[in-house]
Amino acid sequence: MTSSQTKYRLGLLSLVVSIGLVAVKFYAYHLTRSQAVLTDALESIINVATSGFALYSLYLSSLPKDENHPYGHGKIENLSLGFEGGLIFMAGAFILYSASGHFLHPHPVARPDWGVALLASTAVVNLAVGLLLVRNGKRLKSVALVGDGQHLYIDALTSIVSSGALVLVAATGIVRFDSGAALLLGGFILVNGGRMLRRAVSGLMDETDTAVVAEVIAELQVQRRASWIDVHNLRVQRYGANLHIDCHMQMPYYFTLEQVHTELHDIEELIRARFAVEVEMFVHADPCTFAACSLCLMPACPVRQFPLRHEVTWTVQNAVKNERHHLGQSA
To answer: Which residues are in the Cation efflux protein transmembrane domain (predicted)?
Structure first.
């Protein structure tokens, strides 16, 4: 089974589970008339909508590149995460508004025992499916699956809190525990929706993934050859699970075109072998200048003008800059 098929099946599982749990939670609300249970049920409706959109995004992201999408369709997963975060944020705002009114004007809660039993069962299912989605989403580098799984975590937490509120109402007779829990959940849902929106915008705006950049630079440093005099202007973009990497590599100016091509091909293959996803890499070759002699590791260079002074160690701080390294820069 391919990674795309695995992601699609997991997305379908999330959608089916979400639909079933919404029915259970609204039945629990029908029995209890609890504001906390209604909050949980409303949040689960968002699960259905977002799971459906996530499923579509997983299908779309698996499509091959075409003339209109030369980098593939992977960005749709970030849009899916943003859609999910936006709906969660709006649901949190509505829940806070509704719960505030019920806190000021509480009403009785009926049959809390049934409510606790039903919500506890949905929490167990959500935790299990959420764990499955997050674990596989990280393995498959799918932000849509990870986001969907984290949403199920949130849903499970709301069910646990709602169950706790029903237990307190049954034990103490204080009805405001119910609406108080709804207020707490509304704030929690609002904050998490905002965080998901933030992650989605970061992906759509190609915010630097420092961990991936550091991994690429570390691999280049480990595999470094004397002819790779300098690397700079290194950039990494993520399209769904796939990576697009480009950088400038300074090489001896007297290398033939064939030698340069061989070196660039080797660099690309080394980086592709490092990652378990599809990597598209472009390396721009720059000819060296005599200003680089004091940093150049080439043995027996026929045109060297200055002796080697020190080697510059490539790091996230210096390899991403759009400037060549020079003498005086810390190693």
So the answer is: 12-205
Question: pLDDT for 164-222, tens place per residue?
Answer: 888 888 888 888 888 888 888 888 888 888 888 888 887 777 777 788 899 999 999 99
Q: What is the CATH number of domain 3-204?
A: 1.20.1510.10
Residue with tokens 């749709």, as numbered in its chain: 76
Across the strands, what pairs with 283? Answer: 247
Q: What is the largest CA-CA distance in the chain?
A: 90
As given in the structure block, the two tokens for residue 269 are: 């293959």
| Owner of token pair 């369709």 | 73
| Bridge partners of residue 249, in order along the sequence | 231, 285
**Domain ranges in the chain with CATH number 1.20.1510.10:** 3-204
CA–CA separation, 279 and 72 (whole Å): 12
Name the burial class of residue 75, with classes exposed (0-12), middle (13-18) and buried (19+) by CB atoms within 10 angstroms of its CB: buried
Q: How far is CA 192 from the centre of its chain?
A: 14
CATH number of 210-319: 3.30.70.1350
Within the chain, all domains assigned CATH 3.30.70.1350 are found at 210-319
Considering the entire predicted model, what is its pTM? 0.61
What is the β-pairing status of strands 242-251 and 230-239?
A: antiparallel
Amino acid, single-letter form, for residue 87: L
Look at phi and psi of residue 111 and say left if phi exceeds 0, alpha if psi is from -120 to 50, else beta.
Answer: left
Instruction: Report DSSP state, residue 294.
Output: G
Which residue stretches of 223-311 are H helix? 257-274
